[in-house]
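Subject: mismatched residue count in predicted assembly?

I count 472 residues in my input, but I want to confirm that the predicted structure covers every chain. Input:
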Amino acid sequence: MPSLGVIPIEGMGEVRPGDAIGTLIVEAAQSQATPIATGDCLVVTQKIVSKAEHRLVELDHSDFAARAELIASETVRVLRRRGDLVITETRHGFVCANAGVDLSNVDDGYAALLPIDGDRSAHRIRNAIRAAIGVDVAVVISDTFGRPWRHGLTDVAIGVAGIAAVVDLRGQSDDRGQELRVTEVAVADEIAAAAELVMGKATGVPVAIVRGLDPSWFRDGSVHELIRPVEDDLFR
Amino acid sequence: MPSLGVIPIEGMGEVRPGDAIGTLIVEAAQSQATPIATGDCLVVTQKIVSKAEHRLVELDHSDFAARAELIASETVRVLRRRGDLVITETRHGFVCANAGVDLSNVDDGYAALLPIDGDRSAHRIRNAIRAAIGVDVAVVISDTFGRPWRHGLTDVAIGVAGIAAVVDLRGQSDDRGQELRVTEVAVADEIAAAAELVMGKATGVPVAIVRGLDPSWFRDGSVHELIRPVEDDLFR
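Triage response: the counts match. Full output below for your records.
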């Protein structure tokens, strides 16, 4: 089994509304001498996707009522509320704090909302890279979510293109020849987590290449594979 | 920022009760010409740790009453129950399915229980490697857990040695110079997830090297950093 490489893409500079992220990534990767190759999976953080896709909205960070209203507008269901914090289900089906409304890494006076359709954002980047250099890559859009029960945040996938979000190993046999029962692996979330290890939160690295993934995972996937239906969910 | 490498360790063979896993890892890494080096983090799956630490117990897999009794004996709190599935809090404070009692990758007639103290297991492996080759490594013991709301399983940490489980970036400023509010990153969980990408579930790779992690994370850590106190938890 081959090794995996996780390579940060630095020097992308400031992303602005309307920017073509795919083109910026290709240029930054070339200028640091790690050209993008077939079989690569690019992990792109939500922040630059939201900026490029005009998902910044004006918000006075000290105006808590306006902030609450903005969060409510992105919410389809409130799961829990405590003080300033509200755990919500977004239109996409993600459960996260404050409906993904983000005040960090944006200028004061603005908030970043989640991309409207993370899969579409990922496809747009994938298509731009194919158009620029003729290489098919997978793309994962990542964001930073909390979890119940476990302390600390991890990065997860909020959009994918050209790669499975969940790989189903059910029915394959384990190394004792017994049938594996529960082995649907959320590979897109694990890829997002791996990429976060080279990004940090305060280092301004918004993209990483994950190189060497199992080729069988490269297919037409969707982040919907990661959304647990409400009727299957014991905690909603 | 340097790249990360995730290198599977193959050819460890069958682990048996009482085996010194640290020694087996050193030998397997040397025989595949990827010797362990300072700054490496070894991710070791729970299954081989439980086997080595005599945490296999006899269980007829078709005896559902005996299985339920075994799960109950590992449980301090039941969060949800549906049919065959029970979501429990273990003695360690982990919330997972069936109190971590595992019937896959063990011989029929047996079940694998979680290590009694994952940090101690990790320290034992770290100490054995230092004794064998004089190299200080970090160790993460990993297991495969489900999550509420999100479909698919991911690997998380159930024990650490020589590395932080959660890295606290609070108070550092983000790339706009603003203070980051919520940036405690569960790096041990992200390291476990990254390693799973080269392990698969059916390939018999129980150990991976994660190479190139931020040196500032290498300190005396504990998996307790990852346990969210009940009083802070909105979902328990």
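The mean pLDDT of chain B is 91. Marking this ticket as 'not a bug'.
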